[in-house]
Amino acid sequence: MVAGLDSGSWQDKAAVARKLRDNSVSKVKPPLRGIPDTLPPNSQSIPKLVLTPREVELTENYTVHQLLAKLRSRELSSEELTRAFLRRAAVAQATTNCLTELLWDDAIDRARYLDSLPAPIGPLHGLPVSIKEHQGTKGSNQTANGSYVAYVGKFQGSTLLCDILWDAGCVHFARTAQPQTIMHLETESNIYGRTVNPYNRDLTPGGSSGGESALLGIRGSLFVCYIVKGALKANANCASQGVGGDIGGSIRVPAAHCGIYGFKPSAQRLPIAGGTGHMFGRECILATNGPMATDRDSLELFMEVVLAAEPWRLEPSIRVAPWRPYQFTKPLKIAVQWWDGVVMPHPPMLRALHEVSEACKRAGMTIVNWDSEALDHKTGWDILSALYYPDGGREVLGLLEKAGEPVLPLTTFITKEQPNVKDRSIHEMWKLCAEREAYRTAYARHWSSTADQDGQEVDVIL
Asked: Any idea which residues carry the catalytic annotation?
């Protein structure tokens, strides 16, 4: 913990974290000029007002694979690419409030080092990668708060996942915002305030990986590194690519809100150890890491790189399961869930589902309806919400109380307004876990039954 931060008001401590962020962004050279005093609702036009044509080209015109090819051939230097993304990330911060720190000095030093080598050190050689705030990275002495004021100034070492990306040759260049408790589907905290959507500043970029999705949405990164710590197992495009975390939608929701790609692998597939968070040791509901990117191929690249490192040798809870490319031999069969049996979507959402399903039909895919009412999603939520906080929210709320920071509305919703969030005995936990397994089994059998008529199970639910 940084000296002197064990006392003072929560406002004073939050100001320390914001000062660190603001000082890091102020290192941008040359300084940003041209950002309007009054921002338009849509921020997508702002980068071209501020960046050079070359910076716009590098951050807008290429996929991750194309940039990596240019880096390998030395047609492009990592330093030039990193500087372009650092400056675009600073524009993203000015328009969406998505950053918690810009790693200007560390990133440029790393890029120069990689450029000095006679050959690439790995498949991500020279590629800028952004990271969620609650993780540390190699090569710097960082703090992490996980959006808890009580943790402001807490030193944070690197995580196994970040180490793997580092060893593959990436350049960590930016750290991004997450919400209070890292368990909101929006992104707001008492430390950094609210992150907004780069397509419409009146809307949210989603959560909990909303800082990352906002950064990617304005192409301040192409590849991001995100982990959700809301319920982890113990030990646990402004960017070109990033890594997100997901337990209840924290990759999927931000990706949908900002028009990017995200992938939530199965739990215990990727490293999750390390980082700043809460409730370490709870195994009833497991979170997972996953990539977020501006193009689909980058998701597969991320999975290939991380699993090629055989992380299960260092984190034994990870399943021994190398990445296996899959080739479809027949048209996809897609089930459309028009509603979940609990909340009817608004007309614009139903229209979007209809348009996508019709487009899939025209592409030769088989479309069927998903019988959600038979699956009783309310029961699923009752089980899930109980297992999110089997201590009744005591640890999470205790961390907020420790610093005296206000409990935000979405934290209240998930911890205090759910009737099944209670302090559970071990026997109650056993019962809930048994109910969880029974519900999973029922869902799996329902899915399998979609092959009864034509012999082909549904591939995906829309």
From this structure: 132, 208, 250
